[in-house]
Specification:
This protein is an alpha+beta fold and 404 residues long. The chain is built from twelve helices and 20 strands.
Length: 404
């Protein structure tokens, strides 16, 4: 007998698996297909790959029952410091004590461990790891895929959650606007002499932003931060090949002694930076979520949070429709999801692209203008509050699962 489920989620990363779990909490079943080996994604060690989880996104983790499992592994972001080359005229985003934190930092490994553990215990999720998709089919009455081992999986709605290079999106012929920033983000975990004080630093240099993100101390008390350093594509290979000593010297030079001596650096990795946004996020019995629909610069740390807003909206639309007896792949449900998420995601993507270009303008005059503008934001309370609410993800039409 065919195990037909409500959703066929192609991509079992952070966004895809969150969708499966959030849907399951609403009684919606799914197949999740991913080519990766979970054991490799959850291997021991901290390599600097981490995610900022906004207040609204943390509400999603809480509402689907994962907060207690994750809480001990998260480092609170008490404030965000934004500066142009460590010169005067910075912004200090620190909420009032009753407003709580600006978010939490998690090593991606800890997020995956929590998601994979919960998914393996959820009967409404059929998880097909280490699986290659050979064929995709979308028809009038349902969707299906054929795996490399010949297995056929069937559902009512196909979800593309494979990330920036989504083959499902490309196969569907969905138009995409994209450009390359000719920059690369270098990721590494740092241990350092002084505590970070739960402050996330965004230091802008002409070559690109230099972000230091607070992480929990190691078991031996050593202080840790995640580094996201943007360099020009032409300089990336050389920077990655630097010895640990030379790399740490370059990092310390840009940090201006913020955390004292940088004692060690973990494995370095990198990825190219670009912008892309699809003309639409739905098709016939198809919905796009996360980076399959929109890829933005990490300058504001909103990439994953944008995908989790997709998750909340899609689950809410589907749950409401199914309560009324509609099929999950019904065109009117997909239209509602498109209208809800299309504009919000595009607005955030454009704002992020604008910031990237604004802080990338070289020269003393441009730097002075930026610092003048930041000093103005620092003095204007309502404007500062607006930016903090944006960082928390609590603005706009929030899905129910992302509300407190």
């Amino acid at each position: 007998m065919t195990d037909k489920r409500d959703l066929l989620i192609l991509g079992g990363g952070l966004v895809g698996m969150m969708l499966a779990l959030a849907a399951a909490r609403k009684g919606i079943s799914s197949h999740v297909v991913d080519r990766a080996d979970p054991a490799e994604l959850t291997a021991e060690g901290f390599d600097g790959r981490a995610s900022a989880i906004s207040t609204a996104s943390w509400n999603l983790f809480t509402n689907i029952g994962l907060a207690d499992r994750l809480e001990p592994h998260g480092c609170a972001i008490a404030s965000i410091a934004v500066t142009d080359q460590m010169k005067p005229g910075s912004i200090d985003f620190t909420p009032e004590p009753h407003e709580g934190t600006l978010g939490r930092m998690f090593a991606n490994r800890e997020l995956r461990l929590a998601l994979f553990e919960a998914a393996s215990e959820e009967p409404l999720i059929a998880w097909h790891a280490k699986s290659e998709i050979m064929e995709r089919h979308r028809g009038a009455h349902g969707v299906s895929v054929v795996l490399a081992d010949g297995t056929s999986l069937h559902a009512s709605l196909m979800i593309a959650a494979e990330g920036r290079n989504s083959p499902t999106r490309d196969e569907a012929g969905i138009t995409i606007a994209k450009w390359d920033y000719s920059h690369r983000a270098i990721i590494a975990g740092l241990t350092h002499e002084l505590p970070h004080g739960n402050v996330a630093w965004e230091i802008f240099y002409p070559a690109g932003p230099f972000a230091l993100l607070p992480m929990l101390d190691r078991a031996d008390g050593k202080h840790r931060s995640a580094l996201v350093w943007t360099v020009g594509e032409k300089d990336a290979a050389g920077t990655l090949k630097l010895s640990d000593r030379a790399f740490l010297a370059e990092v310390e030079k840009r940090m201006g002694g913020l955390f004292g001596t940088i004692e060690s650096v973990g494995p370095r990795s990198s990825y190219p930076l670009g912008f892309h946004h699809t003309a639409r996020i739905t098709g016939d019995r198809l919905a796009l979520i996360g980076d399959a629909a929109h890829g933005i610069h990490p300058i504001a740390g909103q990439g994953l949070n944008l995908g989790l807003r997709d998750v909340g909206a899609l689950v809410e639309v589907l749950a409401e429709g199914m309560r009324l007896g509609l099929d999950p792949g019904d065109a009117q449900l997909l239209r509602k999801y498109e209208q809800w998420r299309g504009l919000d995601a595009f607005t955030v993507a454009l704002a992020t692209d604008g910031l990237t270009r604004l802080f990338g303008i070289p020269g003393r005059a441009a730097s002075a203008l930026r610092r003048f503008g930041m000093a103005g934001v620092e003095r204007i309370g309502p404007l500062k509050t607006f930016f903090m609410d944006e960082a928390r993800g609590v603005t706009g039409d929030l899905p129910e699962l992302l509300r407190a």
